[in-house]
Amino acid sequence: MWGLVISDEGPGFQPKDLPDPTSPAGLWQEHGRGLMIMCHYMDEVSYFDNGRTLRLIKRKGSGETP
User: Fold this and answer.
1) Residue 48, domain extent
2) Into how many domains does the chain fold?
3) How far apart are CA 50 and CA 11, in angstroms?
4) How far apart are CA 35 and CA 13, in angstroms?
């Protein structure tokens, strides 16, 4: 297993408030797919500090390696 923690000093975000990048309107946006891709490849994606800190976990043998 390995993990990665990313922190940012910005205002943060609420994951539930993000628009769906696979919706008809979202398909044409030039941004907004990064979190969807991380959630697809990682085994765990956790948000802390009002969305300013992100923890990614990948377990050995759990599919594709990033």
Assistant:
1) 2-58
2) 1
3) 8
4) 12
**Looking at the domain assignment, is residue 63 inside a domain?**
no
Task: Give backbone dihedrals phi and psi of 17, rounded to 5 degrees, phi first.
Answer: -90, -5
For the record, the structure tokens of 13 come out as 């975000």
Nearest to 41 by CA among 20, 62, 18: 62
* Residue 54, domain member (yes or no): yes
Pairwise CA distance, residues 23 & 41, whole Å: 20
pLDDT tens sequence across 6-62: 999 999 999 889 999 999 999 999 988 999 999 999 999 999 999 999 999 999 887
In a domain, 52, yes or no: yes
For 34, the enclosing helix (H) or strand (E) is helix 34-41
